[in-house]
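Quick one: structure for this chain?
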Amino acid sequence: VQLQASGGGLVQAGGSLRLSCAVSGLTFGNSAIAWFRQAPGKEREGIACIVSDNDDTVYSDSVKGRFTIARDNVRRQLYLQMSSLKPEDTAVYYCRLALQGRTWWGQGTLVTVSS
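Got it. Here's what it folds into:
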């Protein structure tokens, strides 16, 4: 199983980015997916997830209303649409997939938001 994250880059405050995570090696229709991020000097934090059994979404307070998590089961892609970006959103972003008691992580993609 491999998760390949992409879409990071440098953006000005107030701008938008869409992160993608390509999943290979399994059918992930019943999995729970999530995006985490780790800012310099800080612990990794979960910011968005889709619960597997009912597709409910949950967001951290820090991104609620600005970020949207989505999945495309046919293309086997995970997405994180980020809007109204702030300098404090600067971090390495990771996708994670959980299925039947196992978890897999993508390699991370760097998002830098300039003020």
